[in-house]
Write a structure and sequence with these properties.
Helices cover about 40% and strands about 10% of the residues. With about 525 residues, the protein is of the alpha/beta class. The chain has a 9-stranded mixed sheet with strand order 3-2-1-6-7-9-8-10-11, with helices on both faces. It has a two-stranded antiparallel sheet with strand order 4-5.
C-alpha cells in the first residue's frame, strides 16, 4: 500500500502542476485517457511476447520486432490476429513505446497525437464482439483545447508533459503486483474531490461502495456458474468493481452497467479494463437509464423477458428531474405501483427500474436521499406498495457529508424479492463516522459494525431495530428512521446546589480581581 500512496501522491502533485488553469474535471480526460492508452499498448506487447507471435532477434525489443515484422502487406494479418484475442490492436507506429521514442528524440509532430487516437478508432481492427466496448473510447480527447496552449506547438508540449509524466510511473509494486488499477482509482477519486458538484455525479467513495458490495455479495453461492451484477447509473464503474473485489470465491463475474454521460461512460470502460476485466465479461451501455430501459432478454420460448441480475447496486443522482409523462404508467418497470415518481424527483424511478431487473433470489442496494423515507404524494403511494409487496428489507441511515459535491445525509435501501418475513430492519449509523477536513469518513470498524448488524438482524440499543409490518403500518408507512430507532440520550441531572456554589465562588473571584485592578489604577493615577 505504501507504494501506491507514494506513487499516487506524487502523480497527483505533478498532474496539478501540468494542468495549469484547466478545470480538474476536464483535465482528467487527458491524463486518464493517456494512462489507459499506455495500458492497452503494454497489454498488447505482453500478448505478442507471451504468445511467441514475433521472431525477436538478439538485442531487439518487442516493439522493434513488431515494427519490423508487421509492416506492409503483413500488417493487416497481425492486426487481425491481435484483435481476435484482445478485442483491439494498435498499429506498430502508434504503440506507447513508439510514441515515447518520438517524444524523447524530439521527433513528435502535432498531428501524431491526433493520429494515434484516430487510428485506434478507425484502423485498429476491432473484432465484431468488442466493437461496442472499445469504439469511441478516446472521443473525449480534445487536442485542440486552447487551455493546453495557445498554439499547436504549445499544446503539443503540454501533451508531451502528460505523456512523460505517465511514462515515469511504475505500475508495479516492489513485490511485482500490478497496481495500475489502484492508481487509476485513486486519480478518479482525486479528480472527483476537486471537481466540486460535478464529481459527485460519477464517483461513490470507496467506504460507501464497500457497504453496498458487502451487502449484495453476502449470499453468493460458490457453486454458481457466474455472478451477474448491474449498476444502472454506473458513473466511473468503481461501484461495480468494488462488488467484484468483495467476492471471496472463484465464481466468474459478469459486469453490466449503464451511464448517460458519454465522458463518464468512457471512463467506466477504461476503469474496468484496467482492473483486468476482459471485454468479454462486461456489457456497458451509454444511454439514459430512465428513458432507455436495459435491453430485455429472450427466454427459451423466444419471448421477451426483462434481463435480470444477481446483484444490483446504484448511487443515482439525487432528486433529479425526469420526464414522468403518464404514458410511462404502462412501462412494466413502473406499472405495478399506481403512480410515477414526481417530475422533480426521480429517486423512486431509479429504484423501481433497478428492482425490475433484480432476479428472484438476488439482492439490491441503492443510495438515495432521506426524503424517500417520508415524503408524501406519489412517493408515499410507491413506498406503501413496495412494503406491501414485501420487497423492502433494510433501511440504513449513513452519515451526512460522505459524498463529493453534497453534504446531505443519505440512506441505503436494501431490497429483495424472495423475503420469507415481513419485517424491516432499521439501522441508524448516521452518528458514527470519522470527521474529515472536507468529507466525513467511515472507518473499517464502522463498516464492520454495519455489516454485522445487517447480518444478525436484531435490535441493538440506540443503533438498530427490527420493525414488524404492523408497526410500520401504524406509522402510516413513514420510514423515517427516528420513528424506529431511539437514539435519545438522557442528559445527566444537574445539581443546582453545586451550580449556585460555583456561581458564588466565581462572584468572589471577580470582586477580588476588580479590587486588585482598582489598586493598580490608583497607583498609575488613573483613578483617585
Amino acid at each position: 500500500m505504501s507504494d501506491i500512496q507514494q506513487i499516487t501522491s506524487k502523480l497527483w502533485e505533478m498532474a496539478n502542476d501540468l494542468r495549469g488553469s484547466m478545470d480538474a474535471s476536464e483535465y482528467k480526460n487527458y491524463i486518464l485517457a493517456f494512462m489507459f492508452y499506455r495500458y492497452l499498448s503494454e497489454h498488447q506487447e505482453n500478448y505478442l511476447l507471451n504468445e511467441d507471435i514475433l521472431d525477436i532477434e538478439d538485442g531487439e525489443s518487442v516493439n522493434d520486432a513488431y515494427i519490423r515484422e508487421a509492416s506492409g502487406e503483413d500488417l493487416a494479418d497481425y492486426l487481425e490476429d491481435i484483435s481476435s484475442s484482445l478485442g483491439y490492436a494498435i498499429n506498430p507506429n502508434d504503440t506507447w513505446t513508439s510514441l515515447i521514442g518520438k517524444v524523447n528524440n524530439s521527433e513528435i509532430i502535432p498531428e501524431d497525437y491526433q493520429n494515434i487516437f484516430d487510428n485506434f478508432n478507425s484502423n485498429c481492427q476491432l473484432n465484431a464482439n468488442s466493437e461496442e466496448d472499445f469504439s469511441g473510447i478516446f472521443s473525449d480527447i480534445n487536442l485542440g483545447d486552447s487551455r493546453l496552449g495557445s498554439s499547436i506547438n504549445e499544446r503539443t508540449k503540454s501533451l508531451n508533459g502528460i505523456v512523460n509524466l505517465i511514462n515515469d510511473v511504475n505500475f508495479k509494486s516492489d513485490d511485482g503486483k500490478d497496481i495500475l488499477g489502484e492508481i487509476y482509482e485513486y486519480l478518479i477519486g482525486q479528480f472527483a474531490a476537486n471537481a466540486g458538484k460535478k464529481g459527485g455525479e460519477f464517483y461513490t467513495p470507496h467506504q460507501v461502495s464497500n457497504i453496498l458490495a458487502k451487502i449484495v455479495t453476502s449470499d453468493v453461492d460458490a457453486n454458481d456458474e457466474a455472478f451477474y451484477v448491474y449498476d444502472p447509473t454506473m458513473g466511473s464503474g468503481s461501484l461495480l468493481l468494488t462488488v467484484g473485489q468483495q467476492l471471496d470465491c472463484d465464481v466468474p463475474i459478469k459486469y453490466y452497467g449503464q451511464e448517460k454521460n458519454t465522458t463518464t461512460y468512457n471512463l467506466a470502460r477504461m476503469n474496468l479494463m484496467m482492473h483486468d476485466v476482459s471485454y468479454k465479461n462486461m456489457d456497458l451501455s451509454n444511454a439514459d437509464t430512465l428513458e432507455s430501459d436495459w435491453p430485455d432478454g429472450i427466454d427459451e420460448n423466444g419471448i421477451d423477458q426483462p434481463r435480470v441480475f444477481d446483484a444490483i447496486v446504484a448511487n443515482p443522482p439525487y432528486s433529479q428531474k425526469w420526464d414522468n409523462d403518464s404514458s410511462k404508467l404502462k412501462d412494466p418497470r413502473f406499472s405495478d405501483y399506481g403512480k410515477l415518481a414526481p417530475k422533480s424527483r426521480a429517486d423512486y424511478a431509479f429504484l423501481l427500474h433497478s428492482l425490475y431487473h433484480l432476479n428472484e433470489t438476488g439482492t439490491m442496494a441503492i443510495i438515495l436521499p432521506h426524503g424517500v423515507l417520508f415524503r408524501g404524494g406519489a412517493e408515499e403511494k410507491i413506498r406503501k406498495t413496495l412494503i406491501e409487496k414485501n420487497y423492502l428489507d433494510t433501511v440504513l441511515g449513513v452519515p451526512a457529508n460522505l459524498f463529493y459535491g453534497t453534504s446531505i445525509p443519505t440512506v441505503i435501501l436494501v431490497l429483495r424479492k424472495n423475503r420469507q418475513n415481513r419485517d424491516i430492519l432499521f439501522i441508524d449509523a448516521s452518528k458514527e463516522f470519522k470527521k474529515g477536513k472536507n468529507q466525513n469518513e467511515l472507518t473499517d470498524e464502522h463498516i464492520d459494525k454495519i455489516i454485522k448488524t445487517y447480518k444478525d438482524r436484531c435490535d441493538v440499543d440506540k443503533y438498530a431495530h427490527v420493525a414488524s409490518f404492523d408497526e410500520i403500518e401504524e406509522n402510516d408507512f413513514n420510514l423515517n428512521i427516528p420513528r424506529y430507532v431511539d437514539t435519545f440520550e438522557e442528559e445527566e441531572p444537574i445539581d443546582l446546589d453545586e451550580v449556585l456554589a460555583n456561581l458564588k465562588e466565581d462572584d468572589e473571584k471577580i470582586a477580588k480581581l476588580e479590587d486588585e485592578i482598582n489598586e493598580q489604577l490608583k497607583i498609575l493615577g488613573v483613578i483617585k
